Hints:
The structure holds two protein chains of two kinds.
Chain A: H1 6-9, H2 18-30, H3 32-50, H4 60-105, H5 108-139, H6 142-181
Chain B: H1 3-12, H2 17-39, H3 42-58, H4 69-88, H5 95-100, H6 110-129, H7 132-142, H8 148-155, H9 159-179, H10 181-192
Amino acid sequence: MNHQPFETWMFEMDQLDPTQAAALNAHLAECPECRRLMESWQAVEYQLKAARQVSPAPGFTARWQANLPLRQQQEQLQQARQWLWGLGSTALVIAFALIVYLLSTQSPVTLFVNLVEFINGAAIFLAQTQSILKIIFDIVPSVVWIILGAVLLVGLVGANLAWVLPQLHDRNKGVAKNENFA
Amino acid sequence: MSFAETDWLRQAQHHDEEAFTHLVETYQTPVYNLCYRMLGNAQEAEDAAQETFWRAYQAINRYDPSRPFGTWLLSIAAHYCIDQQRRKRVPTLDVDLMTDMDAPDPAPQPENVLGQQQDKEAIARVLASLNEQDRAIIVLRYWQEYSEEEIGQALSLSVSAVKSRLHRARRQLAQLWLDSPQQVALERNHHESPAF
């Protein structure tokens, strides 16, 4: 027996016109296979419509609030990690490109000699800088260093506050808005 | 959507944690219910619902206010649960938990309680047999009472795809119900019972 379109119609009862509904009923009366399927679907649909929404355990919102700072911290860490990976990869690519460029413009021996000369020059520069700093430390009295240290400390604290205070303001802003709203 | 929700949404889009918390409070049940019906386990549903709100919190600036917020939120939940199920591949729905946590009948008749419980278990079992996307369609259709258009929006499917999958899922549920052990036993008892 051909079960179409009745097998389709029995799952779309709410979309049938009266003629289609009558044709389906006539088919169901003479087709036990479709009748069993239809009865089965009606039982399932009844169960689906009778089932209620399940709520989470009490305190769901409190758990959300409690987890938020941790999630934000993890997100920041992940972003920092991604940023470092990106930076590291870029540095590696640049270093590789530089090595390829240098090897294509000069022989490996010349390149090695130039590298040793560069390292040697850098070491001399560092040694000279150290000597100059030592002379300056010997000349300038210790009071000046204390004042400079204090200025630096105040500057750092000020910069930190300038970064933290707007964030605290933003965090409290929502609470104030909701208090006004309520 | 109520005026309060619109206001919370506007504030949440300006990184207002308190306003977003109001949205969590408002939508926790539909989100949790979807996760629970999809995953079938209370702890996994809790984790999935929390993850849904976190993803929504991160993406709140990309939310289009012309769309219903509930649909957007359930879309995130459904996609997350479908991904979780696909990652696991082996269905691990805890049918006992799923039926235990249904709200109790306000006036249960003692003779019907056992039958109702068996029916709930059977429906949870057949629901668990559907594939992830078809299960999401059934949950959105029957627990959220979403139209085919809304289901399409939530699951990024065309209306014709939703219709076709909904029909397939209903057909499969009916067939599974017919083949369920409880139904088979019922039919066997019916045939074996003495005719007097």
